[in-house]
Every structure is written in structure tokens, then in C-alpha cells.
Amino acid sequence: MGTESPTPSYREAYARLSRIAAELESGDADLDRVLPLLEEAREAYAQCRERIEAVRAVLAGDWADGPRTVEDAGTGDTDPDDPEE
């Protein structure tokens, strides 16, 4: 638990969750280790969920319309190919 970076990637956090789940499902986890494992799993889950929510926020935004220029931002103009605007 002390070797992870302060902000692990989604992949790292997911790998931690998978490792913990496998250990708990195997039934080999010592009872004294279960609580620390669950705490670590809760932390990894929160990190995964945070990243998923960030992606959802981006997908829900207007990013699909492409980048807007500074000039477009004040006028509502979204057609960069029109030289008259």
C-alpha cells in the first residue's frame, strides 16, 4: 500500500481493486487483514469512480462541437469557415 503514487491512474486503482477482490474471494485472507483490505478497496474504488465521473462530465459537455475560438465565444458564432463572420 505504501508503494503507490499519491494519485494512481485509473488502471492502477482498478488493478488494486482486482487484487483485493481476488484475495478476499480466495478465502485465504487472514481475518486481521480483512479490514485493511476493505479500507484499501474503498480508497481504490473512490479513485476509479472519480475518474469515471470526470469522463462522464466531459462527454456530457459541448466538446463534440469542436474547439471554439476566443472570437466565437463572445458572439455565439460556431462556423469558423465563414469569412464574413
Automatic annotation (TrEMBL):
UniProt keyword list: Cytoplasm, Exonuclease, Hydrolase, Nuclease
Q: Does the keyword Hydrolase apply?
A: yes
Q: Has the keyword Nuclease been applied to this entry?
A: yes
User: Per its UniProt record, what InterPro entries does this chain match?
Assistant: Exonuc_VII_S (IPR003761), Exonuc_VII_ssu_sf (IPR037004)
For the protein in the UniProt heading, the enzyme class is: hydrolase
Question: What is one Pfam family matched by this protein?
Answer: Exonuc_VII_S
EC no.?
3.1.11.6
Q: Where is this region: Disordered?
A: 65-85
Q: Which NCBIfam families match?
A: xseB, xseB_Acin_var
Name the protein family.
Answer: Belongs to the XseB family.
- The protein, known as: Exodeoxyribonuclease VII small subunit
